[in-house]
């Protein structure tokens, strides 16, 4: 079947649509003919859609939504209005069956599907389900039997059960469908994936809803093959797309050992998201030998009670150990903080800033306010009006939290803020002019590390 794939993510600096690259590879492996439209580079998305579909006889069109918004309490920038406009242009341009997918869709599928005007959506893994839908359509069978499908019938949304297959069944990811080289030149990095799903109990995280609560790993050899494919394209700065690279630790060790065995470590720099525990000096050393240049730890808080409220399975001392071991192995350290969650106090904020200083990271990202995603434990614990707003900031600290943080942090340049109102210290990557400028002048790597190096070298 002739299948069209459309990337709707137009955030700058640009981030390559790795999921669409994977889906295209799976469709091609199943014998389908794939054409891809990347709207990231198009000044007029609607016109590009009309031009792409004009005269083309597609049986199926897959549209990806990477994010619903920028997750910022202060900014609350939604990507949905432009997405809806693009969907309307696709609907007007083709008679193909239109299906929405992507992480942004999977986080709140019914809501997005209702806005999009698509025929259906696919929750979770798109590679297997999309190829199966193409097969059903082409053979004249009921396409509603597609695993993980969501559609509206009358006034009700219906779902089919997802079929979660092992990631070892995926075809080799040659990364040939998206212009990854262009993304690297203008976006500073490329992504690769080692696993999906997360069984952690974090109260705010939407990853389990979007990717499943069971961790499924890719064979280490397949991950290393993909990394070498990107290296062959001249892309030597990468970032893991795993929720947390070190969960489970044994798989992280296997991937690092395979990369080191192939001698890849000396040819690239890559960065990872990690949990502060379980983490060890042995893993830090293995990551460094495999080419890892920096780790972003989701620390959230330095207060033990707040960590427990957030459902985090580690303690403040775990954060200190992880940061120390990473530094000792010669890698940069970033600590991501999530402040203002339910139960936050002036005392817990002070303890968090104190712990960050003790941990001595290269940078610490300060995000105030929590994005409330449907289906999370946080959403279920809030009153209806709080959950429906989509964002939460603890009322007990809301009147003074920004002033207190300014007093606690002072002029410590290691702290970055998810706040466009502080352009010199802003790490909200969406439309970040300083970050875009750094990439344009040749900086590559994780965005927080680009901002760190650019700031230090600029003065």
**Estimated share of beta-strand residues:** 15-25%
Query: How many helical elements?
Result: 19
* Architecture (CATH level 2) name of the largest domain: Alpha-Beta Barrel
Percent helix: 25-40%
> Which fold name is given in CATH as the topology of the largest domain?
TIM Barrel
The parts where pLDDT drops under 50 for at least 5 residues are none
CATH class of the largest domain: Alpha Beta
Strand order of the largest sheet: 2-1-3-4-5-6-7
Number of domains: 2
> Would you tell me the structural class of the helices and strands?
alpha/beta
Strand elements, count: 18
User: Largest sheet at a glance?
Assistant: 7 strands, mixed
Distance between the termini: 56 Å
Average pLDDT = 96
Task: Give me the Rg, rounded.
Answer: 22 Å
Q: What is the fold's blueprint, element by element?
A:
Elements: E1 2-7, H1 18-29, E2 33-38, H2 45-53, E3 60-64, H3 80-93, E4 97-101, H4 103-107, H5 109-116, E5 120-122, H6 127-138, E6 149-153, E7 156-159, H7 180-187, E8 190-192, E9 195-196, H8 207-211, E10 216-217, H9 220-232, E11 237-240, H10 249-261, E12 269-274, H11 281-289, E13 292-300, H12 304-309, H13 316-328, E14 332-339, H14 346-359, E15 363-368, E16 370-371, H15 377-381, H16 384-389, E17 391-392, H17 401-409, E18 415-417, H18 433-440, H19 447-458
Helix pairs in contact: 1-6, 2-3, 9-10, 10-11, 13-14, 14-17, 18-19
